[in-house]
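Hey all, quick one. A colleague (J.T.) asked me to put the flavin mononucleotide job into the tracker so the inputs and the structure tokens live in one place instead of scattered across chat threads. No bug as far as I know, just bookkeeping. Sequence used:
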Amino acid sequence: MTPDRHQMYNNNPFKLGLFGANCSSGRAINKLPERWLADWESCEAMAKLADDIGFDFILPIGRWKGYGGPTNFQGVTYETVTWATGLLAHTRRLTVFGTVHAPLFNPMVAAKQMVTADHVGRGRFALNIVVGWNEPEFQMSGIPQRDHGDRYDYAEEWITAIKRMWSQHEPFDFDAEFLHLRGVVSEPKPRGGTAPFIMNAGQSAVGKSFSLRHCNGFFTSFREHDVKKSAEFVGAYKAEARSIGREIDVYTQGHVVCRPTRREAEDYFHYFTTEGADFEAVEETLRLKDITRANTPDYEARRKAIPLMNIGYPIVGSPDDVAEKLARIHGAGITGIGFSLVNYLTELPFLGQELMPRLAKAGLRAPA
Ligand SMILES: Cc1cc2nc3c(=O)[nH]c(=O)nc-3n(C[C@H](O)[C@H](O)[C@H](O)COP(=O)(O)O)c2cc1C
């Protein structure tokens, strides 16, 4: 446990983060003129603004290849540890994650990259471990993708070795099924002698079990229509962690559209998930999961659903509506949310002015 790790353990009852801003179009498969281009100047300005407004974290996506279509959805992406390092140099309070594909990063190199980011940020770097799923990304790297279960077995060795590199001063050998490392040393250690906050979003049984044993935070989906079920899951997951002597926080993810009126927000949401969506890129996301017109009778329905599904839980409405929805998530015992926006920079000031005071009033945020 690393309870002194800055914003992930601050006194805001409900943590707020921005998710996906290192990728062009963020998480909304859209072709609107104002879509997010993820250029460095915009990323830097977004991070500074989010820091000033009081956001707790920024979480990037580990993505290596775009989805085609007129916008080549997520075709422009920054590598996340170097992206985080740059943003940490330009901010003062918030935590910035790297989203690291364990199979693609040699652990000796990754351990030091992350420590470098952590020192630049004075202890504000955090790690989101992913094991990968997207075959074309692995083909591009020349590294074969393992079977699903083996991916987490490998990640387990990877993070165990890295935690030792982060804590142990004496040279050590590491011998396991996949990794055979000799005479390992790694200096300096992470800032303050504490390991960075570690997150995982595996949804399978092996993914959840991995998080339970190795991570400080876990991503789950929020069930809007069954808050009780969400709360039960969170309670049971935390209890399971405690039964093995660990504490874990449960986070969720979504997409916010916040406008002066509910009508404006709903119209905009409808537009960018229908007419404004990049359906060629949508078809590529389906093809990657082997879903085609030829093999799927309800292909058209699925095609229409992807722009909605891809952004996670939609939080759409006036500032009062959005505050209320976030309060419902908090009420389920969820520690925080990482959400995306169509344009992370231009939409932030309104959230700072209208949403943040409402969240403070609702008890979700510590008084400024
Ligand atoms: C909030 C969230 C963030 C994720 N970020 C990434 C990512 O950046 N890159 C990636 O390849 N997979 C990402 N994933 C996929 C998960 O790491 C995981 O592979 C997926 O949820 C399937 O679970 P499983 O691996 O247990 O089958 C993310 C999932 C969620 C819910």
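Adding what we noticed when we looked at it: The longest strand covers residues 249-258. The chain has one domain: 6-360.
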